[in-house]
Design brief:
Length: about 170
């Protein structure tokens, strides 16, 4: 549990520290689950109010080790900020890409790597978000040095729309 809290704090510091904030009107219920997404609220350093996002962590079945964590928040009506914490060892030069069911792709910005992994972020505009909410999944593409194939990690969107709506 401590590792999960530390991981969320790392993501929150990066996401909210980059100027991404979600105004909390009717406070979302911290820990509430929507399909595969969970509402996570924290008070970032230097602020007085809790800020909330939704997250999903994928683990490796055999070892229960974290593969990736995806976190999203909605700072402005219609737009979405998405952050992905990937394992160390990805190719920084090749970058990270989101691939959607409709074959569209969206390059992510690699921010930095820390002990917990490498953080990639992207701002998703309202039009792409609307398409995203109608899909069942998206894939995170990242290359591993020395391997000729791109790792394609599938992220479920089950409950995503309701989870994002709960932040408003």
């Amino acid at each position: 549990m401590l590792q999960k809290n530390v991981l969320f704090l790392v993501l929150a510091i990066f996401v909210f520290g980059l100027g991404w904030t979600t105004a909390v009107q009717a406070k979302p219920e911290n820990g509430k689950v929507f399909g595969n997404w969970t509402v996570q609220c924290s008070v970032p350093p230097g602020t007085a109010e809790a800020q909330c996002g939704v997250s999903q962590t994928l683990v490796i079945n055999e070892t229960k080790a974290r593969l990736i964590t995806v976190e999203a928040n909605q700072p402005a009506k219609g737009d979405l900020n998405l952050a992905v914490l990937l394992p160390l060892g990805i190719s920084l030069q090749a970058g990270v890409t989101l691939a959607f069911e409709d074959a569209s792709k969206l390059p992510m910005n690699l921010q930095r790597c820390v002990a917990e992994g490498c953080l990639a972020t992207v701002a998703i505009k309202a039009e792409q978000l609307k398409k995203m909410q109608s899909q069942k999944e998206f894939k995170v593409h990242a290359e591993l040095p020395g391997i000729q194939e791109t790792a394609k990690i599938t992220v479920s969107l089950k409950g995503f729309g309701d989870a994002i709506d709960s932040l408003k």
